[in-house]
Amino acid sequence: xxxxxxxxxxxALKAMEMEEQGYRRGACQGLALAARLVRAGVRxxxxxxxxxxxxxxxxxDESHPAYLDELTQTWRAEKRNRTGGAGG
Length: 88
Fold this sequence. Notes:
This protein is mostly helical. Helices cover 76% and strands 0% of the residues. It is built from 4 helices and no strands.
């Protein structure tokens, strides 16, 4: 068995395909969320804050919900707490 066959078994190829599908689905959902937020008046700074929050959620050791709406709600709440006003 050569190196290619050893690493790219049918099961490994299927797992890679599923990971790629998940990545594309996540990218699509992220862009759709960004479009919705921009239409609602969120500026680039807000999108940057959301990106940073999502990276924090991805790399910290805590358990976070997997839904973008939960991320957005958390971001809005943090923004309200920082500014003392309505987040948006």
